[in-house]
Amino acid sequence: RSKRRGRGQITVYSQEIAQEMKRATQLEQALRNAIIADEVDVHFQPIVDLRNDAVVGFEALARWCDADLGYVSPSVFVPLAEERGFIEALAEALLRKAAQAALSWPRELFLSFNLSSAQLMDPATSTRLLAIVNQVGLDPHRLELEITETAVMTDTGVAQKIVSELRAAGVCVSLDDFGTGQSSLGRLRDFSFDKVKIDRAFVSRISADRASEHIVKAIVSMCEGLELEVVAEGIEDVSEALILKALGCGMGQGYFYGKPADAVTTMRYLSDRYRDVAVR
Ligand code: C2E
Ligand code: MG
Ligand code: MG
Ligand code: MG
Fold it and tell me: Going by CA atoms, what residue is nearest to atom 36 of ligand 1?
């Protein structure tokens, strides 16, 4: 009897796995089509200088809404594109769009773009990215690339080479989601970064939890010594902003300062703040 139930379970599981695989393949096909049809969009979230609350740049965040599947999070479709081997095509389309949008912003604002782990394993990445930025006509000094600790875990040699080539071309490199991955401190020594982005997990608990406040304080002081700029991610209210300012955190980002918005909304936002920015 138990044997039968066991077999039944196996059937259920393999059905679930088959369903899951079918869904992933549907998602893959829809995403491939969306890239070809130019339907994957990019939104922009402001990054502010916490010393004076001025906007200093925007992070580009991929957005995709499929007619049948609805909204799909980039934390789902970016890994899928990596797994199925077409992250290059997706990343290039996104960077081209993002860089194009940044051309209309005031020149002092930077564009921050997320790199995926697969891109950091491919030695051609720096050349490809710089070619796109040049084609579009964006000054590489206005570009920042965000990489995560996990992305530089596997093949540090190639990743280090990519990072140093990009930095040599004037691109800033930041370590994203700091504090959540493994061997964070070792990465800071092995790579030359310009910025560290403290993960939202610490920021979201900073008003309620002394431990998070102490951790952020330690990160800020360590980055001061290493001459790295610190950005706090996921600031959602004024009390979080005030604590971070008091701790000496230089930059911030989060819903409190602005949610990710499309290129047109971003231009409207900028034209309200800059006299010489006009919405076309
Ligand atoms: P990330 O790079 O750490 O981006 C920050 C995420 O936090 C974004 O989620 C953003 O919308 C969200 N966020 C910002 N402020 C707040 C806040 O105050 N509260 C809360 N609850 N969330 C906030 P999103 O857009 O869903 O992106 C998720 C992740 O997907 C990103 O994390 C990044 O790792 C990846 N991703 C997004 N776009 C791209 C892309 O173009 N290329 C690559 N390779 N990865 C991307
Ligand atoms: Mg990021
Ligand atoms: Mg992050
Ligand atoms: Mg919170």
Answer: 74
Position 279, amino acid: V
Q: How many CB atoms lie within 10 A of CB 8?
A: 10
Ligand closest to 59 (CA) is 2
Reply yes or no on whether the pLDDT at 280 is more than 80.
no
Residues present in the chain in total: 280
Tell me the mean pLDDT in the region 47-65. Answer: 97
pLDDT at 245: 98
For helices 74-83 and 2-36, give the axis angle rounded to 10 degrees. 90
Lowest mean pLDDT among 125-139, 170-184, 250-264: 170-184
Task: Report which of 177, 172, 108, 104 is spatially closest to residue 140, judged by C-alpha positions.
Answer: 172
Pocket of ligand 1 (CB under 6 A): 45, 60-62, 73-75, 78, 94, 114-116, 146, 176-177, 200, 233-236, 254-255, 260
